[in-house]
Amino acid sequence: MANPLRSLLAAALTALVLHGSVLSSAAADGKEQRFDIVATTGMIADALKQVGGDRVSVTALMGPGVDPHTYRQTRSDIAAMTKAKAVFWHGLYLEAQLEDFLKDLSKRKTVVALAEHIPKDQLLSHPEYKGRYDPHVWMDPRLWKSVVLAARDALTALDPAGAETFKAGAERHLADIDTLATYADATLKSVPEGVRVLLTAHDAFNYFGRAFGYEVLGIQGISTESEAGLSRIESLVRTIVERKIGAIFVETSVSDRNVKALIEGAAAKGHTVIIGGELYSDAMGAPGTYEGTYIGMIDHNVTAIARALGGDAPEKGLNDKLASLQSRSKL
Ligand code: ZN
Question: Considering its fold, how many domains does the chain have in total?
Answer without folding.
Answer: 2
